[in-house]
């Protein structure tokens, strides 16, 4: 594990509320979770969103990154906020980070919500090639394809401004940070770690997710004892953004049950 970096974060809600940390997708920053903030804050939760290392306003240490690096950054973030334990909600790369935390830092994780993610996402060559593309041509070169996975075609057509917002989000990610994070996914295999996760876990999949189809969620839910699986109809990969109401309702229901 490399030395943790102090990632950029934004905290909202009552300082004495239960802490809920949100980790985002490859190519995103903390703004992807905007739809979830107010509903959770209104219920008394302390919402902490962060930019993964190499993304947004966080530092960009030289790569490659491993999941244990990303998990270590979250543990340092919890220390920074004085949070002994926290609920962790992660989507895609954030979900992978959450699984690593659940398996390797169980004493710090109150519960997990794993959205549109995978415990093993091949083929490795695809991730190596994407990292190469980004290093050569910048993140703008993968922004259009990224939004094509994040949103259904119908939503993108109906909300061109929202699709443009997300394209700009991807294109703003530093090339080295994106490419170094691709390596974390390329080398990841968390399937054997799933039975070690004891935290109460909710797994959410999008029925139209081309990046991490429902079968990936089934593997995760099958590997973690007593995990609950929910599929949100009509959601692609950035399901929390495209279908905020059902995602937020599921997250809140899970947090209230644990509370």
Automatic annotation (TrEMBL):
<protein>
    <submittedName>
        <fullName>3-oxoadipate enol-lactonase</fullName>
    </submittedName>
</protein>
<dbReference type="InterPro" id="IPR000073">
    <property type="entry name" value="AB_hydrolase_1"/>
</dbReference>
<dbReference type="Pfam" id="PF00561">
    <property type="entry name" value="Abhydrolase_1"/>
</dbReference>
<keyword id="KW-0378">Hydrolase</keyword>
<feature type="domain" description="AB hydrolase-1">
    <location>
        <begin position="18"/>
        <end position="244"/>
    </location>
</feature>
<dbReference type="InterPro" id="IPR026968">
    <property type="entry name" value="PcaD/CatD"/>
</dbReference>
<dbReference type="InterPro" id="IPR050266">
    <property type="entry name" value="AB_hydrolase_sf"/>
</dbReference>
<dbReference type="GO" id="GO:0016020">
    <property type="term" value="C:membrane"/>
</dbReference>
<dbReference type="GO" id="GO:0047570">
    <property type="term" value="F:3-oxoadipate enol-lactonase activity"/>
</dbReference>
<dbReference type="GO" id="GO:0042952">
    <property type="term" value="P:beta-ketoadipate pathway"/>
</dbReference>
<dbReference type="InterPro" id="IPR029058">
    <property type="entry name" value="AB_hydrolase_fold"/>
</dbReference>
